Amino acid sequence: MTRVTFYQNRNGQLTGFKAADHAGYAEAGEDIVCAAISALVIHTINAVEGFTAQETDSSADEENAVISFSLKGKISHDAELFVKALAQTLSDMQEEDAYKDFVDVNFMEV
């Protein structure tokens, strides 16, 4: 199961996320859930870095299937909006009967 933890500050702003583990929906190379989550995560990182002036920090550990991403400094509206869109889409996936056993979305105050 892919676990995605979204980090929030005390004001409720999303400040980043960590996605970990493979979904386990199908064999490696054929797992559409894992591919969808990966595409959404990479798209979000690329969108924030390409379309906003937000300072960010990211890391990827392919061997352990972990991607971490954080918004640094003052959080811009646009950067947070991209992260919110990711959170909403993954939460929607989690609610679908076909995918609920393969994606787990959580929120944590930091």
Automatic annotation (TrEMBL):
GO molecular function: cysteine-type peptidase activity
Alphabetical keyword list: Hydrolase, Protease, Ribonucleoprotein, Ribosomal protein, Ribosome biogenesis, Thiol protease
Family: Belongs to the Prp family.
CDD domains per record: Prp-like
One GO term describing the cellular component: ribosome
Protein name: Ribosomal processing cysteine protease Prp
Coiled coil location: none
Keyword GTP-binding belongs to the record: no
Record-linked InterPro entries: Peptidase_Prp (IPR007422), Peptidase_Prp_sf (IPR036764)
Biological process per Gene Ontology, one example term: proteolysis
